[in-house]
Amino acid sequence: MLNIDVEEERKVILREYRKLLKKAKPFLKDGDAKLIKKAFLTSLEAHKDMRRKSGEPYILHPIAVATIAVEEIGLGTTSIIAALLHDVVEDTDWEMEDIEREFGMKVAPIIDGLTKISGVFEYGTSQQAENFRKMLLTLSKDVRVILIKLADRLHNMRTLESMPRNKQLKITSETIYLYAPLAHRLGLYAIKSELEDLHLKYTENEVYRDIAAKINETRAARQKFIRNFIGPVEGELDKLKWPYNIKGRPKSIYSIWNKMKKQNIPFEEVYDLFAIRIIVDAPVENEKAACWEVYSIVTDFYKPNPDRLRDWISTPKANGYESLHTTVMSEKGQWVEVQIRTKRMDDIAEKGYAAHWKYKDSYTNPEQTRLEQWISRVREMLESNDTSAIEFVDDFRSNLFSDEVFVFTPKGDLKTLPNRSTALDFAFDIHTEVGAKCLGAKVNQKLVPLNYELKNGDQVEILTSNKQKPSKDWLRFVVSSKAKSKIKDLLKEDKKMAALEGKEIVFRKLKQMKIDPRDEVINKIRAYFDEKTPLDLYYGIATGKHDAKLIKRFQEEVLKEKDNSNHRIQSLNDANSFERELKKVKGQDMLLIGEDLDVVDYKIAACCNPIPGDEVFGFVTVNEGIKIHRTSCPNAPELLSNHGNRVIKARWTSQQEIAFLAGLQIIGTDRVGLISDVTQIISSELKVNMQSISVDTKDGIFEGKIHLFVQSTKHLDKLIDKLKAVRGIVKVNRYD
Ligand code: MN
After folding, report:
1. Mean pLDDT, the chain, as a whole number?
2. 6-209 — its CATH code?
3. Which residue ranges does the chain devote to CATH 1.10.3210.10?
4. Which residue has the higher pLDDT, 471 or 578?
5. What CATH superfamily classification does 370-482 receive?
6. How confident is the model at residue 573 (pLDDT cuts 50, 70, 90)?
7. Of 59, 137, 377, 408, most Cβ neighbours within 10 A?
8. 111 C-alpha vs ligand 1 centroid, how far in Å?
């Protein structure tokens, strides 16, 4: 039995609530406290019978989230109310209308947003991606939804201890995958670091504890070092017109761990365990001068490394970060990073987005618009995007992580693009039309190709031609989501136009043969030509990949023998009987494809091309061994009903589990279709998973590097033999 001291719990709740009020007090206007109290009492009542996994009263969670929102993000009354109520609609009988009626139209949309994105996240599924997409959509409405969601996530991570292990892993991987990068992008450094540290704590606990202990042990030595370092400088800093403050902050556990891993060194050899931060409290109009003045003083005493000077005051980062960083040589012969910034800059660096607004009235900071630009770019991406949600999240994530490159238009306007952007990315950033017709560019007056990688400070002029058309190759060297999605759209349009022609040809042929072009017929022709969709089929016909004359042969070979089975197809067309047939099959013994690859040979059916993860079944053919079909294959009803005894249950085992990663280098003479021949062999013939492929062609020589998962060396040898047989391939090597 759980022993609950109700009186004691009431005291704890009130204490936490008062703490929240105290933090909020400086920002409150008339009547605010009353509203907050109402929200608190509402939440208290709504959650009164609920407890968290740890056993404590549930209300402590919303109070904590609200406290984080005020204290660590700098949000105000509306957000406090929303944070207090954030789980009410989801977990209790309260409806959105109740919130609207009781708390008005300022709070309601935020709660609505928070409720919508709290659905079940399933790592790596489209559901999760879809949820994340929804969450970002709220950016365009009210960024506070995401800020409160981050506060919610932070508190859940802080209290992850009491969750079962599988939940811990799920929540923490989601955190490192999406929330930490998002916090970074919104400039919430402190929260981002804490999320990362907590992630490490729950995934590699020993490492985490080890590093944390060592940071603790070295504290005294570090403080001594900092005192010695500051000593000589202080006298000069005292002569400044403004008050200043010096901090020596250790790096986060997570970033130290990353450094140790990356450079393969022990803790003791990480030289920049901490940075020294000098914060000047200078008024806005003197900020820049003040920071450089401090820089000048520091470098009078210590020699700076010229390669490590970072001026994010003149050109702030896209998330609004402003600071002057330099690395100098200390007396002990150790490099030390010194960060110089003003009080305002420090506030923004720590608290991010919300702090921007605080300073908005007093100072029109041009970098605020940069953050707004980023948000509007996200919005644009969300609105123009018709790619699948998972693809979208991947694109978005790669943009979250990358740093920026700064370039100029011919008129001298500054543009910020993701790192490694090319001239073509720049063209698409200006306008889709400019991108679509981009022929090349002039960078600093010199002619460069489309795939030229932009460098900081480049001045870029785009050259266009009306004859230019987007090509699939372009996708290989653009990095911005905008360029990628626009090129895909344009290619799709192109393909659709061409496919229209192909469709006409197919329909004409069928008419000549007096066959009604029903979906079923088209689907069979598609399977006959080994294409995935009717669009691919039409496109293949239009571009000459397939010979339309073959449709006649298709008629002779395929349609004729179907006459006798037609009535069976009809009888299976209702969903129930199909399900029934499937169930029969599912009861049988399993064939785990992938586990005994050497023993059980099989072929992938061309009609439906199943891939790992698809629901599949095996079919024993007369001459070709076992063929694997998708359960959704258009031929499935027929096979299952007519030849049930030849059907074997099949299931994909996880390839990764039993596979290891190998690298292949492929050299040959370039020709049209070579890459597709190579990838065809790798992915469909030998059922190998490719992790990455990079291809270089120069003067007609083709060099490809492929990372793939194979089951055994025997398997790999077989693959190498097959690849060697491809026309044009000269050499295939393994490398590590
Ligand atoms: Mn919550």
Report:
1. 79
2. 1.10.3210.10
3. 6-209
4. 471
5. Beta-grasp domain (3.10.20.30)
6. very low
7. 59
8. 11
- Select, from the ranges 382-396, 496-510, 678-692, the one with the highest average predicted confidence (pLDDT): 496-510
- Identify residue 608 by its one-letter amino acid code: C
Range with the largest mean pLDDT of 23-32, 295-304, 577-586? 295-304
In 241-369 the beta strands, taken as DSSP E runs, fall at 244-250, 274-280, 303-304, 310-311, 324-329, 335-342
Q: Which of 82, 51, 52 is nearest to 69 (CA)?
A: 82
Give 133 Cα–ligand 1 centroid separation in angstroms. 19
Q: How far is CA 426 from CA 271, 311, 327, 383, 409, in A?
A: 38, 23, 32, 20, 9
In the chain, residues under CATH classification 3.10.20.30 are 370-482
Q: Nearest Cα to 258, choosing from 417, 419, 401?
A: 401
Task: State what percent of residues in the chain have pLDDT above 90.
Answer: 21
* Residues 400-440: tens digit of each pLDDT: 655 677 788 888 777 778 888 999 999 999 999 999 999 88
Q: What is the pTM of this model?
A: 0.56
Distance in angstroms (rounded) separating the CA atoms of residues 277 and 249: 7
Token pair 């959509």 in the structure block, residue: 137
Strands (E), 270-381: 274-280, 303-304, 310-311, 324-329, 335-342
Ligand 1 centroid to 114 CA: how many Å? 9
Catalytic, out of 45, 90, 300, 624 = 90
User: Based on the number of CB atoms within 10 Å of its own CB, is 511 exposed (0-12), middle (13-18) or buried (19 or more)?
Assistant: exposed
**Rounded Cα–Cα distance for residues 153 and 181 (Å):** 13
The mean per-residue pLDDT over the stretch 21-36 comes to 89
Please give the distance, rounded to the nearest whole angstrom, from the Cα atom of residue 180 to the centre of ligand 1: 17
In CATH, what class is 660-735? alpha beta
Task: Tell whether the model's pLDDT for residue 64 goes beyond 90.
Answer: yes
Q: How far is the CA of 316 from the centre of ligand 1 (A)?
A: 33
Q: Which residues of 379-415 are buried (b: 16+ CB within 10 A; e: fewer)?
A: eebbeebebebbbbbebbbebbebebbbbeeeeeeeb
> Where are the CATH 3.30.70.260 domain residues in the chain?
660-735
Hey, how many other C-beta atoms are within 10 angstroms of the C-beta on 163? 18
pLDDT at 593 over 70: no
197: confidence class by pLDDT, cuts 50, 70, 90: very high
The β-bridge relationship of strands 626-630 and 647-652 is: unpaired
Task: Please say if 90 is a catalytic residue.
Answer: yes
The catalytic position among 9, 91, 461, 615 is 91
Q: Which CATH superfamily does the domain covering 212-364 fall into?
A: Beta Polymerase, domain 2 (3.30.460.10)
